[in-house]
Amino acid sequence: MAGAEDFVEADNAEAIITRIEHKSRKIESLLKQSKPVEALKTALEGSPPKTRDERCKSANWIAVHRAIMAIKDVDGMFSTLDPEYYDVLMKYLYRGLSTGDRPTCDQCLRIHEKLTEKAGLGCILRTLADTVNTV
Amino acid sequence: MAAQEISVHQLAQCITCHAWSPDHSMIALCPNNNEVHIYKLSPDRTNWEKLHVLQKHDQLVSGIDWSLRTNRIVTASHDRNSYVWNQEGSEWVPTLVILRLNRAALCVQWSPKENKFAVGSGAKTVCICYYEQDNNWWVSKLIRKKHESSVTSVAWHPNNILLATTSTDGKCRVFSTFIKGVDTRDSKAGSSSDSRFGEQIVQLDLSISWAFGVKWSPSGNTLAYAGHNSMIYFVDDVGPTPLAQNVAFRDLPLRDVLFVSEKMVIGVGFDCSPMVFAADERGIWSFIKYLGERRSSLSGSKHGSQISGAFGKFYGQSKLGASNDALEPSRSRGGVHENCINCIVPLKEGGSSRIRRFSTSGLDGRVVIWDLENQEDLSQYL
């Protein structure tokens, strides 16, 4: 019985990975057209992947990371990024900070400051409190 | 907001909870220790006179409720006991209620008919207490093995049978508290009165973190409670198929909520300013505004909410408060309360269920009385 469930989970994971790969290609093409905010929105859509599978989460993080690092104008980004993305973006910023990678952390902190102004401390609390839908 | 609509009273260093006498002339509060102090406002409404000190508990008093019709005070404490205080002459005489708990009692509330009271506890149980005439004794009946963690708040449905609880396991539950010999089977109460004592009517699994401060709307049709992740939850049609709404807000989490009407809820908590939530004509709930924000903006960055100062240091500059004000010019925190608000109590006008005034108390030791009467932008929700 447990084996069957694992299989379903793995099957599901393959489907999610395929979707993320498709998403990554779209992000690359948007970045080539110099549309970093569109790329970030695409990356954040469907996040967090509805699975506990770490491979899926990592694959999605790589896509989001690619989009986050491409953001040059943070203020400009917030003028077009809708509030519905704030909570999930905050989750990825904390994932970025947890990597300890210098350029990633620098970029995440820059966005974190602006996002906190925009979305308030409530957004941070929802990120820290959510142990179920992790990214 | 004109000054007379908010009155601030500094009554202690820190207040854990408070309750009003039926005519609102006296207030019972716990100044963060094992005592309950009763103050009376002088006739010229300028200063408070300490009338009584109720000393019987051994540890912190965590809950006080003063019954409207029977003029009895019930207290709950971390010492795992409750007392019911009756006024005899000029003295308050305590009656011990043995709750049979092995952890602290955390909250207490009289039922609408005042023949029962409910105590939430750290022992993952709720006690329903009622008076047994034959033995001249308050009996505690326990609802066990339903909560997976401490019960942080209890709220009575107007039908005197249903009880809503919130818990640090993140769930909000509704129970039947029907007690034979105390409650009568009432055709008006509908199916809810058919349930046995302790039967769980519904479990709401909306929050992923601690849940606090549950309340029913005046009609009992809507339930509201707060999550520790800066969310507030509104639930209609409490029963087998509840309709739930989640509202996220931008500031620190709430500790307690209060329905002032069917369409308006006041939330208080770590943000120091009460928040107003209201439902539009389609029944969609949203955040409306903060109360008490038209104070000088100077105090905003200085006092701030509790952790914004720390965040200022985190960014190497204390500009977070200032930039918040820049976004919302009228917004300044900490003007009326300067610390977490943990208690909100309605001031019901004699006989009617109309609520226009309510009081809040918190860790700054202040009791603040708020009046919604002349708030034109809110009148449509009242």
TrEMBL record, chain A:
Among the GO biological process terms of this entry, one is: Arp2/3 complex-mediated actin nucleation
Task performed by this protein? Functions as component of the Arp2/3 complex which is involved in regulation of actin polymerization and together with an activating nucleation-promoting factor (NPF) mediates the formation of branched actin networks. Arp2/3 complex plays a critical role in the control of cell morphogenesis via the modulation of cell polarity development. Functions as a component of the Arp2/3 complex which is involved in regulation of actin polymerization and together with an activating nucleation-promoting factor (NPF) mediates the formation of branched actin networks. Arp2/3 complex plays a critical role in the control of cell morphogenesis via the modulation of cell polarity development.
Q: What is this protein called?
A: Actin-related protein 2/3 complex subunit 5
- Asked if Cytoplasm is a keyword of the record, the answer is yes
Q: What is its main location?
A: other
A UniProt-annotated Pfam family: P16-Arc
Ranges annotated as spanning the membrane: none
For this chain, the family text in UniProt reads: Belongs to the ARPC5 family.
Q: Enumerate the InterPro entries for this protein.
A: ARPC5, ARPC5_sf
**What is said about its interaction partners and assembly?**
Component of the Arp2/3 complex composed of ARP2, ARP3, ARPC1/p41-ARC, ARPC2/p34-ARC, ARPC3/p21-ARC, ARPC4/p20-ARC and ARPC5/p16-ARC.
Give the UniProt keywords, A-Z: Cell projection, Cytoplasm, Cytoskeleton
Question: What PANTHER family does the annotation carry?
Answer: ARP2/3 COMPLEX 16 KD SUBUNIT P16-ARC
* Compartments, record wording: Cell projection; Cytoplasm, Cytoskeleton
A GO cellular component term found in this entry reads: cell projection
TrEMBL record, chain B:
Q: According to its UniProt record, which protein family does this protein belong to?
A: Belongs to the WD repeat ARPC1 family.
Leader sequence residues: none
Q: Which Gene3D superfamilies match?
A: YVTN repeat-like/Quinoprotein amine dehydrogenase (2.130.10.10)
Q: Which GO terms describe its cellular component?
A: Arp2/3 protein complex
What PANTHER family is this protein classified in?
ACTIN-RELATED PROTEIN 2/3 COMPLEX SUBUNIT 1, ACTIN-RELATED PROTEIN 2_3 COMPLEX SUBUNIT
For whether the record's keyword set contains Membrane, the answer is no
Under InterPro entries, the record lists: Apc4-like_WD40_dom, ARPC1, WD40/YVTN_repeat-like_dom_sf, WD40_repeat_dom_sf, WD40_rpt
Name the UniProt key words of this record, in alphabetical order.
Actin-binding, Cytoplasm, Cytoskeleton, Repeat, WD repeat
Q: Where in the cell is it found?
A: Cytoplasm, Cytoskeleton
List the lineage, top down: Eukaryota, Viridiplantae, Streptophyta, Embryophyta, Tracheophyta
What binding partners and quaternary form does the record give?
Answer: Component of the Arp2/3 complex composed of ARP2, ARP3, ARPC1/p41-ARC, ARPC2/p34-ARC, ARPC3/p21-ARC, ARPC4/p20-ARC and ARPC5/p16-ARC.
Stated name of the protein: Actin-related protein 2/3 complex subunit
